[in-house]
């Protein structure tokens, strides 16, 4: 079979999984349920492959080779996922939260990268793995961004408080773009073979980030003009497809951040064009169309990852790092959010569940795994006390463990926190801070 046949087959399986999920899970949020079912299917594939049933590892190797998995994810699917997620961001609501979102997306993502890198470096050294710090930092860069697709779906479905919703949605979308830029920068330093300097690293970061945002503004404006020039509802929706296709490919060709370009363009189309460019018919179908693409691609992604993991070698030391990576990532996210939150909360009143929801609801997903799979195979060998392992395999295993825990455990339990946040009045807490009692409003 060729590439087209494999994609058709896997798409059909992912759609069937979505159908089964809708019938079997009434209480689980749909995006989490679909992703979880695809992940469980990938775990079954891994189990069958380890048992050498049906020679699944040979089939997986053939499919991965035919699809060119790295390019299919990072230069194809990623553009659709980020653009779809950013369409739902409402700028008027985000305007009030712009400072918090900027701090969480920039400072927290960067701080989390170094915290995870340092903790994994120490943990690996304790078990006899000697991994260069730059490679631990690489893992920190790819695992720090949260998955906007799953996060946005949960927030919208549960109707979280507006201010809390904007913080979580904005931080999730922008730290995805920022995280990819950080990963690209660290990746270049790790594998370029050249001695890095502060100016070269800063220049690469600015080129990726600023270039991506400016390019996103350009393609968003062009798409707005074209959509505004027609009243054909079907053509208007089709024109939005040109952004994550031609626009994303062109951004990658220019060596700027396609991720930030997609987020920027998506926000423009979801706000400016939604109000002034789309016909009434298109406004009704725009979100539904892109949510459908989200669900199908997310499910397909985890099926492909299940096949990719059949090619990864397991050992005892890697398994230990898999388990260690989960609490390390949770701790790093909490600390990286707690520091700016303590400062900002002095000037604003927040829902008391904000920090907990930002931490526990910061789900990792397909982007992290896509970046892990992009690391060169067999290029770096990790040496230990009588053990040898491929760097790429170790990072993929740690990433998969964190993503699995994130979606199956965090994603299915964060609902309770959001429901509690909905019944808490932050104004009451502000009144208590000023010396009032818990009886709010005060008795006159």
From TrEMBL:
Gene Ontology biological-process annotations: regulation of intracellular pH; sodium ion import across plasma membrane
Keyword Transport: yes
The organism's place on the tree of life at top rank: Bacteria
One Pfam assignment: Na_H_Exchanger
Membrane topology label: Multi-pass membrane protein
PANTHER family linked: NA(+)_H(+) ANTIPORTER NHAS2, SODIUM/HYDROGEN EXCHANGER
Name assigned to this protein: Transporter, CPA2 family
Organism, scientific name: Pasteurella bettyae CCUG 2042
């Amino acid at each position: 079979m060729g590439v087209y046949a494999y994609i058709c087959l896997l798409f059909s399986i992912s759609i069937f999984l979505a159908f089964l999920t809708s019938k079997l899970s009434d209480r689980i949020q749909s995006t989490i349920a679909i992703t979880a079912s695809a992940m469980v299917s990938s775990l079954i594939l891994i189990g069958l492959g380890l048992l050498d049933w049906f020679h699944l590892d040979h089939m997986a190797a053939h499919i991965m080779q035919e699809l060119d998995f790295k390019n299919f994810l990072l230069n194809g699917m990623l553009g659709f996922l980020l653009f779809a997620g950013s369409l739902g961001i409402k700028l008027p609501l985000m305007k009030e939260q712009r400072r918090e979102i900027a701090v969480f997306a920039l400072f927290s993502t960067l701080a989390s990268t170094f915290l995870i890198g340092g903790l994994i470096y120490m943990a690996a050294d304790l078990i006899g793995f000697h991994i260069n710090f730059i490679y631990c930092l690489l893992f920190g860069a790819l695992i720090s961004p949260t998955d906007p697709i799953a996060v946005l779906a949960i927030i919208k479905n549960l109707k979280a408080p507006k201010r809390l919703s904007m913080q979580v949605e904005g931080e999730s979308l922008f730290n995805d773009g920022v995280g990819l830029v950080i990963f690209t920068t660290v990746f270049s330093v790790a594998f370029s073979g050249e001695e890095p300097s502060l100016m070269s690293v800063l220049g690469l970061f600015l080129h990726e980030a600023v270039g991506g945002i400016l390019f996103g503004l350009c393609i968003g404006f062009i798409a707005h003009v074209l959509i505004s020039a027609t009243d054909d509802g079907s053509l208007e929706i089709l024109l939005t497809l040109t952004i994550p296709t031609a626009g994303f490919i062109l951004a990658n060709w220019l060596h700027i951040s396609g991720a930030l370009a997609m987020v920027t363009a998506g926000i423009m189309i979801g706000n400016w064009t939604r109000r002034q460019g789309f016909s009434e018919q298109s406004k009704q179908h725009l979100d539904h169309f892109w949510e459908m693409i989200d669900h199908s691609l997310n499910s397909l992604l985890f099926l492909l990852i299940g096949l990719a993991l059949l090619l990864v070698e397991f050992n005892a030391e890697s398994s230990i790092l898999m388990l260690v990576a989960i609490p390390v990532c949770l701790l790093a996210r909490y600390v990286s959010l707690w520091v700016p939150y303590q400062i900002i909360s002095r000037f604003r009143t927040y829902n008391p569940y904000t920090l907990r929801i930002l931490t526990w609801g910061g789900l990792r997903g397909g982007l992290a795994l896509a970046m892990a799979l992009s690391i060169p195979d067999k290029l770096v060998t990790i040496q230990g006390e009588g053990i040898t392992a491929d760097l790429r395999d170790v990072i993929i295993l740690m990433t998969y463990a964190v993503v699995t825990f994130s979606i199956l455990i965090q994603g299915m339990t964060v609902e309770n926190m959001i429901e509690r946040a909905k019944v808490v009045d932050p104004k009451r807490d502000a009144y208590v801070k000023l010396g009032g009692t818990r009886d709010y409003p005060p008795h006159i």
